[in-house]
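Changelog note: in this version the structure field was regenerated for every chain. One regenerated record is shown below for reference.
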Amino acid sequence: MNRDNRKGQRKRRGQGNKTIYVLVDGETEKWYLDQLKDIERLKSLTIKPDLNKKKTISQQFETIKEESKHYDQSIWMVDFDTILKEEREFKGGRKSPLVEFNECYLKLSEIENVDVLVNVPCLEYWYLLHIKKIGRFYRTYTEFERELNTIPILRYNKSRKYYISGSGIYARLKPNLNVAYQRAKALGQYAPENPQQAKAEIYRLFEILEIEL
């Protein structure tokens, strides 16, 4: 959903206390965003990971819709590999995971203060764009795992210890943030009619938060 026309209506960073809610469904997203929040000094950012139980697409949809009533901006960050996997395994009998997600996506596009950021296949693709220019579609993280094992994130793994070691993963990647942003932006935004395209819409978070790159 393209929200570029709303940019001029957003408060500039530092003016007022704009509250922003971010819904994620994994620990790695939370660890990365926690570090982003600390380093960029974003006091109004609330990150809500679903760590205790896996919510369905419709439950996450209802959550983000409800939170949009209480925050200036609500963001649903989606790693698409799970939806693609469930779609491949779908046996029929109800709405497929992809159809269900696209319906939710289009409904949320009508809510002014909601953004849905889709990463295809996952957050790690965003990390890869810090390292190399690539537009290839991958169904899963494991398909490009070896390519990610490069400075500044050698021996990458999805553990909290790895994420917070040294200066932290956000700080290690930050010198390449601008180039990753440009590469991700060039990939465009999620298209419901053509979901099997590489995307790293997390780049839009930096626009929404008005973070200087």
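Spot check on this record: Residues 4 and 47 are 23 Å apart (CA to CA). The two ends are 23 Å apart (CA to CA).
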